[in-house]
Specification:
Elements (H helix, E strand, L loop, with lengths): L2 H16 L2 H6 L96
Length: 122
């Protein structure tokens, strides 16, 4: 075996062992192993996650009314004004594609015949 072939063989083996190819090839066609679901409440040292949220402000709800008591502006949206309010963002794409593929060809030809050149006789 030549040195170049040996070097290529060693490089290929190193590359395949680095990405765990042998194990992945042996698992072809099998279902992937799934981890078991564990309840985090049962784990030792569990602490619930708490975010720094402001204290909720109880507001007076008046259904079917456009004007809220205590609001300063009629046209201002009073619903999402505090930290922690939930917003719904609608993203809308308006995409257009336009293709203008035009080909123009022009050919002109002129040929005149006279009686003296009829049937190819001059």
């Amino acid at each position: 075996m030549t040195a170049l072939f040996r070097l290529t063989l060693v490089a290929a083996a190193a590359l395949l062992s680095g990405c765990n190819a042998a194990t992945r090839l042996s698992q072809l066609g099998e279902t992937p192993p799934l981890t078991t679901i564990q309840d985090p409440h049962q784990q030792p040292g569990y602490r619930p996650v708490s975010l720094p949220m402001p204290a909720p402000i109880a507001g007076e709800r008046r259904p079917n009314s456009l004007w809220q008591s205590g609001s300063r502006a009629f046209f201002k949206d009073q619903r999402a004004a505090q930290v922690g309010d939930i917003l719904t963002v609608v993203v809308q794409f308006d995409e257009k594609a336009q293709f203008n593929n035009e080909t123009q060809r022009q050919r002109t030809s002129a040929d005149t015949e006279t009686v003296t050149g009829l049937f190819g006789f001059q």
